[in-house]
Amino acid sequence: MEKFIWAFIVGGGICVIGQIMMDVFRLTPAHTMTTLVVSGAVLGGLGLYEPLIKFAGAGAFVPISSFGNSLFKGAMMEYDRNGIVGVLTGIFEVTSAGISSAIIFGFIAALIFKPKG
């Protein structure tokens, strides 16, 4: 039960940070999303994001900042195997399944549903 509470608090905290960025600093959703992805990558590079995932579970794994952490992990794994070229290929290898799923399901939804207007 305690794990659920921490997941809610951490995930909610990440969302609050994003909302503050849009409301107070007047950042666009694109700027906010980019900032959260980059912050996840930086925290992953500093070795701080993985302990956060272990502590909060889905509260840290589900938000967009986790995508940045995944990009960093993929780049570093491939860098260890293939050198500097691996930095570019690693980000695609680790994230390709999620991005492909989003494209496929978005296309299917576009075929099934009719837009209003």
Structure, explained:
- Helices cover 84% and strands 0% of the residues.
- By secondary structure, it is mainly alpha-helical.
- It has one domain (2-112).
Element string (H = helix, E = strand) = HHHHHH
Radius of gyration: 17 Å
How many beta strands in the DSSP annotation? Answer: 0
Helix content: over 70%
Number of helices: 6
The number of distinct structural domains comes to 1
Mean pLDDT rating: 93
Largest pleated sheet? none
Which percent band covers the strand fraction?
Answer: under 5%
Structural class call reads mainly alpha
Low-confidence stretches: none
Give the distance, in angstroms, between the N- and C-terminal Cα atoms.
45 Å
Shape: globular
Topology, pairings included?
Layout: H1 2-23, H2 29-45, H3 49-56, H4 58-61, H5 65-82, H6 84-112
